[in-house]
Design a protein that fits this description.
6-stranded antiparallel beta sheet; 2 domains; 276 residues; 7-stranded antiparallel beta sheet; alpha+beta
Length: 276
């Protein structure tokens, strides 16, 4: 085993590691990162989120290097996610999991359990009666010891919690109060979260912090750069030649454990590269 192989395996083993199919081009990875952090840029063959987090890659993963690193075999592309600021509020595991979900990949280490807190919304304050219309039959209940109100009914496992946020806005959360978190329940929770976002002219994010709906004014949460204000970086180039092969146009990418399926890819999404 060469020194290069050893260092590569150790880096992938350290993690968090994002494993992707060959169809996940560097540009597509960057655009997906921007669904979490619009200020993300490409710098020296890596993706940077300010000075807080770095995604190094793409790395070519062979069967040999996967076995050396102790990661699942069969994923040809990998990124290593590194937190650069210890006191940062960015969760590298959440970003890795969100990227894996959206790009049809796998995060290592893999977390089987899904968070019961599914979606977060920041928007205008809504009357309790309007929220009750969105979750029929629900009644408000104050949570003792904290300034949070809970809306729940007797038959749906979904709950809405809300409290005052920054700049006079309200923070809402759609959660599962009881029972397993199934794909059908996640879809219902997403519809509820999007309804709250539309009614409050708010921003909707999933439990990993990825943007699902910008506000009606195009404004993102306090302290976050807007997508329109970012500069387009130069295309990323892989650190080693990637043996990429296009997916058939009719093939859908199924995201494990989510019940979601991406639509067929377009020719622009596909890149074929031949090792030098």
């Amino acid at each position: 085993m060469g020194v290069f192989d050893f260092l590569r395996a150790r880096r992938l083993r350290r993690g968090p590691t994002l494993l992707l199919p060959s169809s996940a081009t560097p540009w597509k990875v960057l655009e997906t990162v921007r669904q979490h952090s619009p200020e993300a840029t490409a710098q020296d063959r890596r993706i940077m989120i300010g000075k807080q987090l770095r995604l190094s890659g793409p790395f070519t993963v062979t069967r040999k290097s996967a076995l050396l690193a102790g990661i699942p075999v069969g994923w040809p592309v990998a990124y290593v996610v590194e937190l650069l600021t210890p006191d940062s509020d960015i969760n590298p595991a959440a970003i890795t999991a969100g990227l894996a979900q959206r790009l049809g990949g796998l995060c290592c280490p893999h977390t089987q359990d899904r968070s019961p807190d599914l979606f977060a919304i920041t928007g205008r304050a809504l009357p309790v009666g309007r929220l009750s219309e969105l979750l029929p039959g629900s009644r408000p209940r104050a949570i003792a010891g904290v300034d949070i109100t809970l809306l729940a009914n007797g038959w749906s496992p979904l709950e809405i919690t809300f409290c005052g946020g920054e700049d006079g806005e309200m923070d809402y959360e759609v959660s599962v109060g009881r029972g397993p978190v199934t794909p059908a329940l996640v879809e219902a929770a997403e519809r509820l979260a999007m309804s709250i976002g539309e009614a409050s002219h708010g921003v909707v994010r999933d439990h990993n912090g990825f943007l699902l709906r910008p506000s009606a004014t195009g404004r993102l949460p306090h302290g976050t750069a807007t997508p329109d204000s970012r500069q387009t970086p130069p295309p990323l180039t892989p650190q080693t030649p990637l043996p990429l092969a296009p997916l058939p146009l009719t093939q859908n990418t199924v995201i494990p454990d989510s019940g979601l399926t991406y639509p067929p890819r377009t020719p622009q999404d596909m890149v074929t590269r031949t090792p030098a």
